[in-house]
Amino acid sequence: MHLRHAIMVGMLGRTYDRFHEYQPARGLRERLEMAQSIRGADGVEVVYPSEFASMNETIAMIKDSGLRLSAVNLNVKQDRKWQAGSFTSPDPQLRSMAVQELKVAFDLAAELGTDMVTCCPLIDGHNYSFEVDYLEQWQWLEECISAGARHRSDVRLGLEYKLNEARNYNILADMGRTLYLCERMGLPNVGVTLDVGHALLAKETPAEVMCLAAQADRLFYIHLNDNGRDWDWDMLPGAINFWDLLEVMFYLDRLKWEGWVSYDVFVRNGDPAESMEVAIMIVETAIELLDKIGREELQSFIKEGIPARAFRQLLKAML
Prior knowledge:
By secondary structure, the protein is α/β, with parallel strands linked by helices. It has helices spanning 28-36, 55-65, 92-111, 134-149, 175-185, 196-201, 206-215, 242-254, 272-293, 295-304, 307-317; strands at residues 4-8, 15-16, 21-23, 43-48, 68-74, 116-119, 125-126, 156-160, 169-170, 190-195, 219-224, 260-263. The longest helix is centred in the C-terminal third of the chain and has 22 residues, at 272-293.
């Protein structure tokens, strides 16, 4: 199995939380140069609109870098105007603006040589009972996503779900709801971005829901990271849930995945370029472990269905 590894260039710049700043601000040019230095990286994922204050300059910078673009990540949550929602804003003018931003992201993707836009609508949802009209919200979400996706059929949209943040209850909270939305719209270019950390946060088994998306022909894009199933910490993949990572790699192989995996890793300590390099190494090492154990052997574990025997062999393979 040969994966295409992409770096989220935003994660190479300023990182901070409510209490600390962990990495300094770095311009896009510097971050692209950092990405070029990362062994194993095949491309980058960039964010619109934050990286595109000067549209022509950014487009030229990305093209001149020689790096392939895996996806344009549409951010319609950060600006104050989205405080009450983007695709589900009660203000029709703001919903129209969100759709227009989605169309721009589609055009940018085509211009920059990728067929993928990924979007996590984190500002769409609710915090309290009797705060929003659920029937209206879902209808607005369908209408907006459909209007944006119909803009052009040569670019795909991967919707990234998350249980919560920025809302207490996000409208796209899990794989089931996201696939339901895709089914409701019936558009072939609307699918799912599976963020492994978000699946863990939703108490899902990442490999299982990944297979559901693939069986529905809606698995478009993958973000790799890890957490303790309690918060979206964006840790190095496999740092805590290594067996989940190994299982994801096993099923990606079975699915004959030919798409991208992108590293959504929040670096608190050390050089972020080094951390991304290690993230790729961890994933490649997991694939090597699959080779060592053997796919047929792993499939026999599944068929037998006795976890103790399976883990005896899995642990021995790591020695």
